[in-house]
Design a protein that fits this description.
disordered C terminus, mainly alpha
Amino acid sequence: MQRSIQFVLLGTFTLRFSTGLTGSMLAFYLAHLHEHGGPKVDGTIVGLYAALFYLTELVLSPMFGILSDRYGHHRVMLFGPVFGAIAVVLTALTTNLVLLGGTRILEGASGAASVPSILGFIALATAGNEVMRGKTAARFEASTLAGLGAGAIVGVKLFEIVGPAAFYFNAVLYGVSFLIYKFGVTDPAGEKEAVAGEHVRVGRYLDLIRTSHVWILAPTWIAVNAAIGVWLSQSVFQLAKGDPRFPEQALMAGFTANQITIGAIVVAVVFGAGLLYWGNRFKTLRRTTIIGYGVIGGAVLVVSGLIVNHLALTFPVIGIIAALVAAGGLFVLAGATPAALGLLADMSERFPSDRGAIMGLYSVFLALGQIIGSLIGGVAADWKGIDGMFIATLILLCIAVIPLAQLRAQEHQLGQGPADGLAGQPTA
């Protein structure tokens, strides 16, 4: 089973590499779409595209989670690379904004099919093993974000060299992910019994997402994802485009593909190191403690980033010091996502036949956060450039702190107690 987990994580990396590749290439493509025969695009359109992607993932993830419980996590995880390959081929063929929006729906369907089935697989494979669950949750997040980061890094330069034809190359990479899942992964122990068991119905699933145990986790996780989403949706576009309205902002000068690539490498290395470090603290620190540290780290990152944005050119030494402090904040922020995923995996212990349905909530919370962050990020960037994005991030992190105390008080209950009647009759 350890071998299958390794292949699942490898497939997660390659799949998210393709997603990141598409995201950065599309951002660069949109920034210069008028040069390829299309219209000029502003930050609001970029934010709407990102929101459309995550809205699709939000709507479809629960459905694919339920399907993975009924037909097997391994089987359903094969759907994601197929949807992704179709999306990138269509992206290469058009400059029409409506059709490009349709490719965002297909990319969202790719994530919706993959994430709940993969996380259901991981939750089942690590049941009863706290250490393995912590490490696997962290490595899943690391594989996800390393893939997205590496794809974003390669995408900008690849698009600069090849142009829109680079999307065809990405279709081949989606095929690689399909082969990894198809031939590298075997069914985990207990999956046959879980598939044969009684499963959640749509009405009962809606009952689940209204329970208090879910909603004490949701607000904090959604707000943290929204803060991250501000940057995932806008950073490459804003850095590549620049904006003469904000000459006082060092980060709005308009950067080359090489400069953006170097910056993305640094961010990916720091964030990835943070994921691995905090993922290995599951046995010694409470999940909510790690999340709390992450929120504080994010606030430090924002304040330091504002200093860099305004003083890096006039006071280089101060700018360098602030950049190092920002890197430290990013390292600490990275721990929040695997800790939240660990809490959700603990919750799935209540529903052994419906782990995919429960873990599908990961995508629901992620999508809600990313939709909110994408929309806020687009408006904030058009309002105040990079400064606006920093301000929006800080507000979202402050919101994340508010429900954290209640979540901490009830943390020990999330993985305890009998099943809540999700797949069978309601408990008394």
